[in-house]
Amino acid sequence: MSNKERSINEETPILEILTQIKNGIRDPKNLPTDIRRDCVEHLWHVEGQSTAVIAQILKVSDKTIQRNKDIIRERNAKKLTSEDRLKILGELLAKGTAAHENLMRLARSKEGSLQERSQSAYYACKILEEGIKSYQSLGYFPSKPMQIEADVHYSHEEEMSPVQLKEELARLEGIVNTKGIVDPKIAKLIETVKGQIALAEAKLGIKELKTWIDESDKGKATS
Asked: How many domains does the chain have?
C-alpha cells in the first residue's frame, strides 16, 4: 500500500474507492476480494461498463471479472418475498418519479428549443403511461379502464355541435403546432378526428334534410 492510500473496509463508499483508483491514488490490485467484487457490481450495474473495461480499471484479467460477475449473479439470485417485491417496486417508482421530474424540469426550462421542451414533456407523460402499464401487469392497478366522472373543460353530458368540434380541434391543433410537436400518431389522430367531424356534419345535414322534407309533406297535406 502506498503512503497516499488510506485503509478501506466495508463501510468505505464504493464510489470513493473507484474515484481514488481512477485518480491513481489507490492501486486496485491491493483491493480485498469482497471490495473488488462490490466495485465490479457498481461498474457493471450502475455504470454499465463492459467486462473488458472493468478488467482494465481494476487491473485484473477478463476471466477474473467474469468469475466475479457469476458470483454476483448467484448472490443476487434469491427467491423474492412479498416484502422484497414491494421494496423493488418502491425503488422503481422512485426512479420513475425522479426521471419524470427531470423531464418536466427540462420541459419548463427556457434554455432548450421549443421542440426539445415539447419532447421532454412528451417523454415525461410516456414514463407515467408505461409505469401505469407495469403496475397493472403486476396487479397493483386494475387492468380495465376506470370510468372517471369529471368536468375538465366542459360537461361530458354536453354534446358539441360540428362547428364547436371544429373550433376545439383547431384550438388543439394550434397548440400542437405552437409547441412544435412532430409525432405521426398525433397527426393521424387529427386527421381521424377531422373525418369524424365531417361524418357528424353529414349526419346533421341528412337530419335537417329529412326534417325539411317532412315539413314540406305536411304543408302539402294541409293545403
From this structure: 3
- From first to last of the 223 residues of the chain, give the pLDDT tens digit: 444 556 676 678 889 999 999 999 899 999 999 999 999 999 998 888 999 999 999 999 999 999 999 999 888 777 677 787 778 777 877 888 888 888 888 888 878 787 787 788 888 888 877 877 777 776 666 665 544 444 444 444 456 777 888 888 888 888 877 877 777 788 788 888 888 888 877 877 787 778 877 777 676 666 5
User: The cell 373550433 sits on which residue?
Assistant: 167
Residue 105 covered by a domain: yes
* Whether 33 contacts 64, CB under 8 Å: no
**Does residue 93 belong to any structural domain of this protein?**
yes
Q: Are 161 and 169 in contact (CB under 8 A)?
A: no
